[in-house]
Amino acid sequence: MKHKNSHLLVGYWSRLRAGREVPDQADIDPRQIKRLLPDTFILDCEDASRPVYRLAGTALCERFGFELKGTGFLAHWEAQSGLSLAALLRQSLRLCQPICLSSIAATTDNGMVELETVLTP
Questions:
Q1: Global pTM?
Q2: Sequence-distant contacts of 41-46: CB under 8 A, at least 24 apart
């Protein structure tokens, strides 16, 4: 992980676990990660091969130019990358371990930007 916010999020997630495989959803206090919320999202992974945004922060929605809630997370990835990502997501959920993704994204003006995405089960 390169980004400070990624370390902060994984650290918070690890502390909440308190010896359990994953934190209980009721233990999450948004006030504790207040500055991360605009760039944070929650996925519905009932079907890990088709994760859907259940909630997305305002900064993410602004970057994409629309409300992400209810849209497919993998729709923003190339087909082969989406398949690989779905497999990583299934593994993360099975092992109850966070994953950190480094990727390159295209911008609306045909530029490139490096992204770091942390997914925690």
A1: 0.85
A2: 41/68, 41/73, 43/73, 43/119, 45/89, 45/93
